[in-house]
Structure formats: structure tokens, C-alpha cells
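pasting for ref
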Amino acid sequence: MFLCVSAITSGTAGAVGGMLETGGLLAARQNPDDVDPRDLQILAILYIEDNQPYKAIPLLERSVDLYPENGETYMWLGVAEFLTEQFSEAEESFMKALSRNPGLTETRNYLGLLRYKQGDLDAAVREFLQALRDPVYPPVSKDRVRLNLGNVYLELGNPVAALEHLANAAGGVVDSDQLYAPLHIQLGKALRELDRIQEAIAAFIKVFEVDEMNVQAHLELGMAYRDLSQVPAARRHLGKVIELAPGTEASERAQAALSRLQY
């Protein structure tokens, strides 16, 4: 099950290594007890972007102490807690964010992810749908939510609903977007579940426009070609999975599928 937890920031906090050493951010890193809470939040976002959410948590906790009415800071605290699998703490932070700023729609996306992790897929769907109803939510953010929503619908056994949201998102995502590969993989899976195999293959192949070594795309393509009894093509892609990812679950699935193929 793929859930999109990337692309969560605005992009203004990129280039982590350099920005950590500039102005108020350097002061925030060196002495978080005596600094502007906005600098603490920016530094925390940088750590989250750099896959170090555990470093973000104490900075955000200090920031909410200094500015307890800032819903956005609570949201980022929830994000960091979510990414470090502190789910009960994340839920509390997300609820505090919404109580202070009910229009903070990004929080709904993360609540959807949290509900999924808690095993409540119907609640996850409700959160994602509520995010999509916000007319001013940025299109790129809506595409990310549609990907998450499509994935949950796939897990719920509803490929028709999944396809609707995934196809909608795919229509607006360009190949330079980091959503491009995972979106087309999930789109292909929805099409394959609906027995639209040729369309599924076309979706999987699009992944190679940005990532020729994508293991999941090779695995899904191998399975799709197997569905069509195109054995040489199936063997080629399943063999590529074993070559690229030996010893993984994907490799085991590819090996099992290969063993059942008939020439």
C-alpha cells in the first residue's frame, strides 16, 4: 500500500544544508530556548524535509510553547510525530491545529494518513474527501490527496472509485513532479483490477520516463504481461525485479510468478 507523505512543504525551505547556517535559523539551532518561534518552525520544516523529523519535534514543541495559538505549528508538530510513528501524539496535535485554524486543509490530508495507519479506512476516505472540498487548496496538494484517496479505495476493493481519483490526478501531473511515478503505478493497478490490461501497461510504462529502474513498475508490468499470456515480456520484467531488488518481497513475488509461467 503506497501512501504519499512526500511533497508536504511549500518548497520555500529547500536546500537544507545551506539554510541551517543562515540568520535566525542558525540561532534557532544553537539556542532554541531564546528565538523567534517562526524561525523554530522553519528550522523544524527543514529537518522534516531532510528526513530528520525526530529533530523537528523539540523545536516545534518549543514553538507552540511560545505561540500556543498558531495552528500551523501544531500541524507541523503532528507531521513530525506522525513520521516518527507517535500516532496518538500526532492525532492530538492535528486536532489542536484544527481547533485553532479549521481552514488548515493540509491537516486533513495527514489525518487521513493517520486514520489509515489506525486501520480506519472509511475515516481516512472522509478526511481526504473533506480536503478536496476546499476550493482554495492548491492543485498540487489536491493531486497528492487524490493519490492517497485512490490508494485507500484500492485497498477497500473499489477500483472504480480509485480510478476516478487517480485519473483525475494524472491529468494534471507532469513528468517532473515527484508524484508522477507513484501515481502512474497506482493508476495502472486500478486499471488492471478492472481488467483494462492494455491501459494498465501503458500507465506502468510511463513510470520509466522518469525512473527506468523502478522495481514496482517492473513487477506490475510483469504481472500485467502475464495476464495477457505474453510470456517473454512477463519474464523480462519479472527478471528485472530479481536483478534490481534481490532478497526483497518484490523479488519473492516476481520469482513466484516466474515459476508459474508457461512457455
